[in-house]
Amino acid sequence: MSTLQDVALRAGCSVATASRALTRNGCVSDAMIRKVRRAAAELGYRQSPAGGKAGRRVIGVLVPSVTNPVFSSSLSSIENRMLIAGHGVVIAQSHYDPAREADAVTALLTDRPTGLILTLCDPGNTGHLPPDLPPTVLLGNRPAAAFPAAVCVDNVGAGHELTRFLLDLGHRRILFVSGNFTASDRARSRHEGYLQAVTDAGVEPLEAMQIAFVGGYSQLELDTVLSRSSPTAIIASNDLLAFGVIGALRREGLCVPRDVSVAGFDGIEMGQMLDPPLTTIEMPDASMGTTAASLLLDIAGNGAPARHFDFDYQLRRGGTVRAL
User: Fold this and answer.
1) By its UniProt entry, which InterPro entries does this protein fall under (predicted)?
2) Does the N-terminal or the C-terminal CB of the chain have fewer CB atoms within 10 Å?
3) What is the per-residue pLDDT across 88-97, written as a single tens digit (0 to 9) for each?
4) Does domain 53-153+285-311 match CATH 3.20.20.105?
5) pTM for the model
6) Range(s) for CATH 3.40.50.2300 in the chain?
7) Phi, psi of 117 (to 5 degrees)
8) Bridge-partner residues for 265, per DSSP?
9) What mean pLDDT comes out for the span 9-33?
10) Does 133 or 217 have the greater pLDDT score?
11) What CATH code is assigned to 1-47?
12) Class of the domain covering 155-283
């Protein structure tokens, strides 16, 4: 069995430097960290996490909510990939709350994970997170200066394509209903795509309606915004919210899509069980989860450089949208 001394000899450094590189505890250059981790992978060296059960290797995963099928799908893929690699998975939730995000990440670090897979509220604003994180991959977020390794889709492009689809069907009063933009850069990017599309078409954008991501869908009230904006189509920032929009329209005595068209994002299976099926942008959540897990293992185990993978999305036309 390989020892830390073997790793240090292969990497051409001291045992102390090798230890700091593997634990990311102390001052070690990124180049040396990659060199030591590559040597450890080549020798099959495995470190026992301090304060934990010997030989227990885990990664930490942070998602906004495990109740959203989008994240459930990604988590399942991550767990399957990590099972093959001999890692357990520890899961935490931010509940779409930037204030709770730091506590959730801190809780994950208590298990001394090999690395982290994070879906953050805003990867461009991470001053609240603990310093000196282990190897980290963003899932669903665009890469940022602090986190260059990321697996995501072009949400701006997706928002633009869905809005363009509605515009081509004759809709000019299109309302964007979303969870709070401060809680999700994905929703904010989708709205940015909406704004680009309506501006390109010379159409006046309607003011976005923002609600809480957690606990606000089933009791959504649209009477005020409907009377003020009179939309012919509504884009929801995710499919679960689209379900809430459809329910709220029905409570107002309106029919989808006869009176108002509705579309969402994510492509979760429940949307195909609606009558009529939901029009949505389908995201490859399972494939993204597997790729994020593989990328993290490559960075943490082989010293591979951080990389960014951009997945394709697909417009799925359902029956909740009609042409005017």
Assistant:
1) HTH_LacI, LacI/GalR-like_sensor, Lambda_DNA-bd_dom_sf, Peripla_BP_I
2) N
3) 999 999 999 9
4) no
5) 0.83
6) 53-153+285-311, 155-283
7) -120, 120
8) 281
9) 79
10) 133
11) 1.10.260.40
12) alpha beta
